[in-house]
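Appendix B, example 12.
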Amino acid sequence: MDIAEFLKEKLGEIVEKLKSDPKLLEKFKAQPDVALRDVTGIPLNDDQLKAVEKAVKAALETSGLADKLEGLKKLF
């Protein structure tokens, strides 16, 4: 499986696991490569890990922004 397919299939799952487990999220922030290996269970090479890490960070940032916007909607 190439990295694009992997991300397409697994990105949402990885992000949800990180968001639902504060300890795992902290581990991701401190050691993203180790946390991603733990979450995926797949031996990704360094280039693949960097691509997944970048995509997961972007998804987490987007998700955080969406959560904040949802909170603002409740004010109005």
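The two ends are 46 Å apart (CA to CA). The mean pLDDT is 82.
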